[in-house]
Amino acid sequence: MNISLFKTLGIVDCCIFKRIASGSYEVIYAENEWIDILLPHARDENKFIAPCGSPFLDDFIAQAEEFCELVTDGKIESGIWSENIDDQELKLSAYATTDKGDFYLIIDNIVEQYNRRQKTLQSARELLLSNDKIVAQQEYIHQRLDELLSQSSTLKDMQQPITEVIEKTEVGVAILSPNLKPVSQNPALYSVFDSHLASVKTEPYQLILQLFEKQYPEFERVISTGSRWSGELFWLQPPNSEKWLKLAVYPVKTDFQKITHWVFIISDISQVKHLLQNNEKLTHYDALTAIPNRQYFWMQLEQSVNNAVPFYLLYLDIKNFKRINEVHGHSRGDKIIKELVERITPHVSSGDMFARIGGGEFAIIRQKTVTQQQCIDLGNTLIEVATQPFYLPNGAHCEVGLNIGAASFPRDADDAETLMKFADLAVFNAKKLEKSSVQFYSQKLKDASQRIIELENALQTAIANHEFELFLQPMLDLTSGTILKAEALLRWNRFDSERIGPDEFIPIAEQTGLIIPIGKWVISKACEMISTLNHRGHSCKLSVNLSPRQVGDRNLLTFIQNEIRNHHIQPNQLELELTEGVLVDNYDKVQFLLTEVRKLGVSVSIDDFGTGYSSLSYLKKLPIDHIKIDRSFVQDLVDDENDRAIIMAIIAMAHSLKLNVIAEGVETELQRDFLQLNHCNLAQGYLFSRPLPFMEFCEYLGNLTNQKLIVQSEHDPK
User: Of 105, 120, 135, which marks where a domain is finished?
Assistant: First the structure.
């Protein structure tokens, strides 16, 4: 630790100690007299030994030493505490850190900074107190109304009690029907909007719904799923005044989760917001990056729309930001965010608005009249600077990227809400592309989005409506010609007879989390099929696919155990298939899951081998039984020498690791013969059978068995 740097820069009123042994610290830097109050004799003896008599400091040192034993890189902070010794008050903070293998304790006297902070935070305290009062009022009204509305009485009977609850309250209340029609609105609600509503003859509940839908993309999801929600709305009152509103949304449901009413409770928090105007950074700027925040962005977006001058809106989303936080920690994730902003800022024109609108999401309002090509050029520049490595304190580095979507005002939309939705839609499309680029909104994207929303809603009830079906595609032993197992493939037949392909609905299920219940249904159904096959005299293993989301399900292992037991099947009759991408993205979770399922006796197969990351290390480290050669190598092997070489190499490598090899997509006899000649173990494809409904699969097994019996009888000696 460079102490001279502290002295040269005159940095903070601090003392520095180096850990010699457990509880023993050497004085490295202590030129400030206040340390004699906290640690008497430390400067004279050039050391101190814990415990030192300060309860807070002693507790922190104990935590810090435990941290130092477990973590080789990082730091732990104490927060601020007070020491009152000999009528003198100290405001102290401490942190412990490691540097080149050594452990240091730094104690900082921050009394001056503390006093300044106290003054700065006074407005924030008033804000919190006001917010607490508002929240308490809203929660009380919600509880009372929920009690009344949940009763099985008629609306007429409830009218008087409801009126008594809401009429005299200070907060605005709107009670709506399940389809968002007004049931009751109290006088306070009208007073919130009174100055504006009289001229345009708009009901308060209508304006609330408009603002909510306009400013929050999750509006549709809250209403469709019957979820509670709270947040702040910004209302730009004509001609140019502003008002801040705090909205709480509560669904009232029956015991069967059917929505009977919606309760909207709203409060005017404009005065509270104005408490922070003396500190604009708290109100309008992001604390981490110091660039405009979401609220300020929406104000500027509304203003830009009101100005009626054409502009472009760019929506920036950091690729896999959640994974960055999971792998490297939130602290380093924050550092990456700050550095990314520092890289982007020089490329943003002074007249443009650059804001952070979410954890890993940013927006740029290009307020000058620019062309689409200029937006593309800017986007490509930002993508380039974002892809440069981010170096971490431990010497490692990580790579991030940007997905960028764009929409144009007024060409694509003439209001802020729709414009933001279209930019979000464009960035969603960008996420699906392998290479980063700027994606612009189009009608084609809108149609695709509407299709996704439609399928997402339909997926919610697909299991309950028995719309899913498992098809089975057999895998044949290339030596014996017998069916050893089959892959379970999910099919969705909607009630309107439309068949939706898995390539279309599986990504939606994965994104929404619906893949968890769907995946459990698949496993349960596969176990049921295995049980039925056993009773029919067919010994056949079934293989089911696991998605990335399923791997992260903590209840998956227990569920598999229960399904095996409930259907009275052997664990070795079930197999799990995972892709290479799942292995790499969720390595720790996958390793635990595969180890545990192998202990049960369930086998494991790696699907689409050769198309993903193809890291050979996991083949050695993970408990794997089979690898499946992707169909892209099989389909051209007759004409493509490289594909033949790859397949031969995969088979040889797998066998050396004592793994079986399965070839997918076998459609010709020449493909089968090549695979058989090169000792591939199993194959599946249309040459043998297409995926079959369960009953047809049973018939297929029966026919094969009968054919073998006939052939055997013809060759038996008379």
Answer: 120
In angstroms, the CA 207 to CA 661 distance is 63
Q: 555-575, pLDDT tens digit by residue?
A: 889 999 999 999 999 999 999
Whole-number Å distance between alpha carbons of 250 and 139? 10
H/E element holding 398?
Answer: strand 397-398
Task: Dig out the tokens for 700 from the structure.
Answer: 């297929």
Q: Is 72 exposed, middle or buried (0-12, 13-18, 19+ CB in 10 A)?
A: exposed
Torsions phi, psi for 366 (to 5 deg): -85, 90
Residue matched to tokens 């412990």: 96
User: Quick count: other Cβ atoms within 10 Å of Cβ 76?
Assistant: 16
Dig out the tokens for 582 from the structure.
């799942």
Q: Pairing mode, if any, of strands 626-629 and 603-609?
A: parallel
Q: Sheet holding 259-268: strands in order across?
A: 182-185, 172-176, 259-268, 241-253, 229-237
The residue among 488, 620, 495, 626 whose CA lies nearest residue 546 is 488
C-alpha span between 378 and 369 (Å, rounded): 14
Cα three-residue angle 586-590-593, rounded to 5 degrees: 145
pLDDT in tens, 146-194: 666 665 444 455 556 666 666 767 788 888 988 999 888 888 888 887 6
**Do 423 and 328 fall into the same domain?**
yes
Q: CA–CA separation, 427 vs 476, rounded Å?
A: 44
Which range of residues forms the domain containing residue 403?
287-441
